[in-house]
Amino acid sequence: MTTISRRGLLRTGAAAGVLAATGLPLRAQSRGGKLTAGLSGANTSDSWDSRTHSDLFMITCAQGAVFDSLTEVAADGSLVGELATDWEASADAKTWTFNLRQGVTFHNGKPFGADDVIESLQMHLGEESKSAAKPIVENIVEMTRTGDHQVQLTLNAGNADLPYLLSDYHILIFPAGQIEDAIANGIGTGLYQVRSFDPGVRMVATRYPDHYKGDAAGYFDEIEYIAINDNTARMNALLTGQVDAINRIDFKAENLLRANPNLRIQELTGNQHYIFPMLTDIAPFDDVNVRKALKYGINRQEMVDKILLGHGMIGNDSPIGPANQYYNAEMEQLAYDPDQARYWLQQSGLDSLNIDLSASSAAFEGAVDAAQLFQASASAAGININVIQEPADGYWSNVWLKKPFCASYWSGRATEDWMFSTAYEDGGPWNDSRWGRDDSERFQDLLIEARAELDSDRRREMYFEMQQILRDEGGVLVPMFANYVQGISNSIQSPETVGNLWQMDNARMAERWWRV
Amino acid sequence: MRIILQRLGLGLITLLVVSIVIFVAVNMLPGDFAQVILGQGATEEASAAIRESLELDKSLTARYFSWLGKLLTLDLGTSFAQLNFASNMGGAGTVTVAEQIAPRLGNTLFLAGVTAAIAVPVSVMLGVLAALYRNTPFDRAVNIFSLTSISSPEFFLAYVLILLLAVLNPILQPLSNINSDMSFGEKLEKTLLPALTLTLVVMAHMMRMTRAAIINLLASPYIEMARLKGMSPMRVIVRHALPNALAPIINVIALNLAYLITGVVVVEVVFVYPGIGQLFVDSVKIRDIPVVQACCLIFAAAYILLNLTADILSILSNPRLRHPK
């Protein structure tokens, strides 16, 4: 196992994938050929309705190929315009004006304009809406069409991250007045036009001629995404050359792939993290000293080594990862220290502590094993953890947010504010540690203040402080960040910098990779 | 004829019982469609909204009878996933359960057909040969081979075959993702590996039944007579023993064919074959009761119909039953 320092990882985080590819000659992108990929996360209930997208297969098909959003997170993590060319905010970050790209057409020939944007955003609203992007869009109180190719969005409170939020894979642009048709048949403005789509089975699309991205993206003539949910089947498909690329490699069989000279492995550390949240309003977790004792009682390095088999990075109890803009890599790393743990336990007036920890493979692969490792390391500090193995079925409805101490995961968010307001804002529905004002007044104040702050340096300061607060006192243990590990045939080339926000180059391999 | 009608009637009652059992069982699983579909993001209001729109808030019996009522008009209904999708969309573009299942069922029947076309002749032939050369090394070898393969888990056999026939010797394709655009030849080529795997799984049963049924008859007086006439052992078995042993063999074949339709989900997953098993498992996972029910009915019907066919064929193959006194 090679150890990579945290600073080192930060610097190379986005480019880490290139390490695996060194030795290959870098060539200019060439047009043509077909990309066949085997991807997991497909379901027979899949559809082109982006409000329901939650797993890799549909995200790569929709945002990654057939549809566009207003903005796009580039491979290096910066934000660029997709259907919006540029944008401007008022001083309080409440009113945003987006200039839209001209001369864009949907795959059915309909020209793209301001109405499409407004109607596509409104899809997520309404009391009945089950859209996962509703929390983002409902903050937009007014959408005004200020020109054929300009919209103005007014928020209920300032949010400097709005352009970032609009790059979310749920918020795709559909043709106004034809949304039902577009959802039924997959009609977007993306680089590829749907040829056939069989939910949970496969998707075939061909390059849309005269696309506005021109020669700068979308190098394949045709793409075929095959749903392969089984890990071994996916590896076999890549090994036998049936597909050119697969996501999520099973670490245990990684050596097999490495031994094959026709393939390479791409590994990236993003924001995906595995956690043990405790409910901070329930005894004994309401005592900050108990939380500190647990922070020192968990052996993070051991978990990265044994649960992730080295394919990850140790966490520092903050949900902000290397794919975020204001990732605080300067915090002192929490490390396993039973003496410290015992000290903090004594501070809380206890000699020993007996707690239950609920875990299941639904939380993350190896969660039960991780809980048992935690049990062993904590016992040295007088903390007795009773591991309860919960059924995977119904884990999210019966255990998570309900049991005082359990295992869980977050795939992370593109911005700090988004991550914090999803899981750490006072009273939020998915605040899995019930982290609120009574725990840290300062944290909640900073959260609201930073949201409307347009000055990047000031935001950095605030987000760094918030990460520090969570590291010191937070109710969520973040022992590890899990890498994205994907396998690619050498006949497919990828750019030097590959996106680490999401698997498969932020799900945009059809746009950014090419055949050599 | 009366017997057939009687059996069909019994079959219908079985189907009814099966549907009740499945309905109750699926509802007893922890979590429901609303919770599963919303996953980590489930809130009380969102779950309640989905439950209301799918009528999941009604009582178990009311939901069962409303489903049964529709079924009597041959309407399998619409899956929860589709209904939920439709309520997001304002009602357009839904696919009914029947439309969802039809192509998958077609694929499953295709795989079952290819497998049967290989497995049935091979196992009956091996069974006859094993009976002919019983207790010889050949008989032992065939028995050991087929018993080993039936005792191994399906996915293990599948991986061994992939290793041998696709990775080390790239003869066949390890991905069987067939689709409707493919020609029959292409489909057949892609289906060969899963079909071979399933052949290994079902062969032992049929082969050993053939062997046992024939050996059983070899002690009968009429076989003795045939032998005394100076017939060759092969001829004795094929002409005299086999026709009389057909009834139990047909029954075992029918049972295995039914298995090929209902029990191949593991093989489907390994080979990425878009059959009905995958759809069924996906639907159980998201508690999509209409699809689960429809699949179960199809599975149960396959068993009932194949058993009935087996019985009819046994009767036809036996003159004593064909002309009862």
What does this structure look like?
The complex is a heterodimer of chains A (516) and B (325). Chain A is of the alpha+beta class. Chain A has three domains: 1-27 and 68-188, Dipeptide-binding Protein, domain 1, CATH 3.90.76.10; 31-40 and 190-268 and 484-516, 3-Layer(aba) Sandwich (D-Maltodextrin-Binding Protein, domain 2), CATH 3.40.190; 273-482, Dipeptide-binding Protein, domain 3 (Roll), CATH 3.10.105. Chain A is 29% helix and 22% strand. In chain A, the strands form five sheets. In chain A, strands 1, 8, 9, 10, 11, 12, 13, 16 and 17 form a nine-stranded mixed β-sheet that branches. A four-stranded antiparallel β-sheet of chain A has the order 4-5-7-6, with helices on one face. A two-stranded antiparallel ribbon of chain A has the order 2-3. Chain B is mostly helical and 325 residues long. Chain B has a domain at 103-322: MetI-like (MetI-like fold), CATH 1.10.3720. Chain B is built from 15 helices and no strands. In chain B, helix 6 (97-132) runs antiparallel to helix 11, helix 10 (221-228) crosses helix 11 and helix 13 (276-285) packs antiparallel against helix 14. The two termini of chain B are 16 Å apart. The mean pLDDT of chain B is 85. The chains are: A alpha+beta (516), B mainly alpha (325).
Order of helices and strands of chain B: HHHHHHHHHHHHHHH
Largest sheet of chain A: 9 strands, mixed
Query: What's the number of extended β-strand segments of chain A?
Result: 19
Largest interface comes to: A-B, 45 and 50 residues
Mean pLDDT of chain A: 89
- The share of residues in extended strands of chain B comes to under 5%
Beta content of chain A: 15-25%
